[in-house]
Amino acid sequence: MPGESLFNALEPLLERVNKPIQYVGGELNSTVKDWHVGGHGPDGEELTTRWALMYPDAYEVGVPNQGVMILYEVLNERADALAERTYAVWPDMEAQLREAGLPQFTVDGHRSVRDFDLFGLSFSTELGYTNMLTALDLAGIPLHSVDRDVDDPIVIAGGHAAFNPEPIASFIDAAIVGDGEQAVLTVTDIVGEWKAQGRPGGRREVLLRLARTGGVYVPAFYDVSYLPDGRIQRVAPSADAPGVPWRVSKHTVMDLDAWPYPKQPLVPLAESVHERMSVEIFRGCTRGCRFCQAGMITRPVRERSITGIGEMVERGLAATGFEEVGLLSLSSADHTEIADLAKGLADRYEGTQTGLSLPSTRVDAFNIDLANELTRNGRRSGLTFAPEGGSERIRKVINKMVSEEDLIKTVAAAYGAGWRQVKLYFMCGLPTETDEDVLQIAELAKKVIETGRQVSGRRDIRCTVSIGGFVPKPHTPFQWASQLGVEETDARLLKLREAIRADKRYGSSIGFRYHDGQPGIVEGLLSRGDRRVGKVIEAVWRDGGRFDGWSEHFSYERWMRCADEAFADVPVDLAWYTTRERGESEVLPWDHLDSGLDKDWLWEDWQDSLDETEVDDCRWTPCFDCGVCPQMGTEIEIGPTGKTLLPLTVLGSGRQDLLEHQH
Fold first, then answer.
1. How far apart are CA 308 and CA 323, in angstroms?
2. d(CA 618, CA 296)
3. Rounded to the nearest 5°, which phi and psi values hold at 508?
4. pLDDT of 87-142, one tens digit each?
5. Where is the Radical SAM core domain (predicted)?
6. Closest CA to 52 of 113, 100, 108, 5
7. Which residues contact 185 (CB under 8 A, 6 or more apart)?
């Protein structure tokens, strides 16, 4: 029977796999609704719309994901819908499921993914594509959308990688670009109405209805033609798909206070990568870092109010029992009321062991008062800053307006206030970068250690340098840039490691962590690829590719071999997609997906980067015409609101203050 629990059949497999608890479900605040929660119509037609939501990675990575958690709750609040979660199963469980003839299942009701109406996957990284194919195959859903019938789930991709879904166009039925909260409700309405009508016109009809909204991209309704040299000639709506728009627009949720999700955050049963309750304090970023896809595609900035944040923290802590609250955004210290927010929360939870944390902090937005408020009730952990580029010159290229003096002043304040450990994050392979730009990272790290020793009077000062490889991303000024090759990346990082270790006065105090160039090149292929890259993904998966974001499972040799075979009959190769610089007139695979950013503005910003010209943040300066606000009908929403947080906690006088305030 559709919707039936498979747990009795799954249970004997659990003792044969690693970390069986990740497949059990039943977490605090999880939801299992009746399969027919929406009931039936007068003629017996089905009135429930069912979503299986997947973060295509291991449970420990996927379960804290805010995007999936929010959609899970938004959908389950509807009386006519249900949503359950599924995650990538490890190879040992995959083998057990195949041997037992059991499908990909949800962790909530242990139902077969194939029984659901919609299968939604959230991709924060392209390296999860092979895990999607495993899930489809295990679920019994045909890999290619063209082979699916009316009884197969509609496969929808979302998340940041969905801003260029072309490499997976043959595997998905649709993609949603941008914020998902309102978008999934619209999709639910359309699918629910189609089901209530008796599913007229079959699968094609419901996909046409979705595509005609202008906010759901259905690749099957778009034809791609190519030039003899391999470049794209045109992407156009198919002649037999009337009403399908030329461009598909991203979704933007305004007024975050109206969407205070998650209200009941999930508490994982097994250890996860983030053991905390998180609140998104604002969405979007206009700092204008040219490498940062997340900042570009989530414009404009929309702040949650200080009181809205306070209510979410209070409710979330009560619902979860966590002792740490993560204040999330792309640049959390940029919230216009961050000082009042941090102090208000620290006051409210004084004496409760409730700690506050920010993700990596901008050097020029950090101050010791803020840091002290964040650690007042919790433990004092390391601080993470992201200068991104080692030299002043390269920071101008990427529009990271942080000077060496800014960094030294900030770390001096941190070490002087009692911190012992600072982590610095940089990138290797940025446009116009030279060996000298990267070697400046070593000099900067040495100055950080020396400064820390001087201001603290101690020798146990530590600094960790973490290096990530730069991957050009769609919808950024660097979408035209060439990517640094594997050998060049590794050679540059080797020189940096030697430079750090060469000076005995500092070498032992500087930790060095880096990723080699191999995964970055594969990510580059997938992030800027077109539909022809789908053959590579499928070949890698059929050859055993799984969990490509995990170094112990990633095989560079497999990707290279499969790419060579897949591109044998077309005028493109791996280098064409990765280390080749694009021209201004080239049609890019994602041009028909509208992020709001004007392509001419992006090109001008690319030219500005080559001239080492910096651009200000439009939050504090006049608009510089990136295109988002007029094109999307949105605007920047920032404070200050002038409101303060009441000390609501029952520990102390908070309850009495609240009662007096209410009366």
1. 20
2. 13
3. -75, -15
4. 999 999 999 999 999 999 999 999 999 999 999 999 999 999 999 999 999 999 99
5. 271-509
6. 113
7. 74, 75, 78
CA gap 430, 386 in Å, rounded: 14
Banded model confidence at residue 360, pLDDT cuts 50, 70, 90: low
> Using CB atoms within 10 A of its CB, is residue 393 exposed (0-12), middle (13-18) or buried (19+)?
middle
Residue 629: pLDDT band by 50, 70, 90 thresholds? Answer: very high
Rg (CA), the chain: 25
pLDDT of residue 660: 52
What is the C-alpha separation between 647 and 653, in angstroms, rounded?
A: 8
DSSP for 379-399, please give it: ----EEEEEE-SSHHHHHHTT
**pLDDT value at residue 354:** 87
Are 640 and 655 in contact by the 8 Å Cβ rule? The answer is no
d(CA 121, CA 130): 12
- Amino acid identity at 203: R
pLDDT bracket for residue 272 (50, 70, 90): confident
Model confidence pTM above 0.85: yes
Q: Which of 416, 509, 502 is nearest to 461 (CA)?
A: 509
What is the rounded distance in angstroms from the CA atom of residue 437 to the CA atom of residue 272?
36
- The pLDDT of 459-482, averaged and rounded, is 96
305 contacts 282 by C-beta, under 8 angstroms: no
Element (H, E) at 131: helix 129-139
Please tell me whether residue 243 adopts helix, strand or coil conformation.
Answer: coil
How many angstroms separate the first and last alpha carbons of the chain? 55
Q: How far apart, in whole angstroms, are the C-alpha atoms of residue 593 and residue 163?
A: 7
pLDDT of residue 413: 87
